[in-house]
Amino acid sequence: MSRHSSRPAAPIITLYDLKSASPQPWAPNIWRIRFILNYKRLRYHTVWVEFPDVEATLRAIGAPPSSVKSDGRPIYTLPVVVDPTRNPRAPHILANTNNIAEYLEASYPARPVFPEGTRALQTLFVHYIQEVFVKPLLPIMVPLSHQSLPERSQSHFRGGGAPGYPAGREQAWRAVKEQFDFLSVILDKNAGDGDGIVACGHEVSYADFALCSVLIWIQRMAAQDGWMRIREWNGGRWVRLWERCKAYMDEY
């Protein structure tokens, strides 16, 4: 017997992620947190949860709701992070992607994802990605993501009927390309004092992780119809961004 065998294992962070039929995680909001954990070299493991079990699972661990409806009812969504590394008896339990990102940056300041002086601009950039950039993708990606869920999770949404792929496929992808073209023009403004690929000059940051999380979603749900298109757009810019972020795509 090793003389170290009785030493308790050090607590590590738990990331609650969405279970799918694919062995690879794909949900973009959750990938943003996975990127930060990997970039900061924090030890963590993943707990996979099916859609029908999300609320019950999160209530059981004492997670806060990610938001609240206008009538006051709580909304429970993933990701959720449980961090017992500071105090195993009273771990930090956090919901909402942006809240988790802020917590991880404040608690683990080494290897910052918000370089000094960029927090406000990055927050606006990420808001744009969430609220504007992804909108034309939703009619394409939501049906494909639904198909990738386990049967039980698919059934959970069938009360309103399974979502279908848009009839005007090429028109839908043209609307997506308009957003990519616009963002490419904006990022080109960094070419004079940066590398023109990442959002904050030379080093990857939270903004890049938010955008690359969308690329992962497309690559894993629409590898042929989507990612093969996008990798050719804007002179291969998005493949170069993917390569810059690839070192932080570990899945634990």
TrEMBL record:
Its protein name is: GST N-terminal domain-containing protein
SUPFAM superfamilies listed in its UniProt record: GST C-terminal domain-like, Thioredoxin-like
The record's annotation in Gene3D superfamilies points to: 1.20.1050.10, Glutaredoxin
Signal peptide span per the entry? none
Q: Superkingdom of the source?
A: Eukaryota
Classification via CDD domains: GST_C_family (cd00299)
Which residue ranges does the record assign to the GST N-terminal domain? 17-112
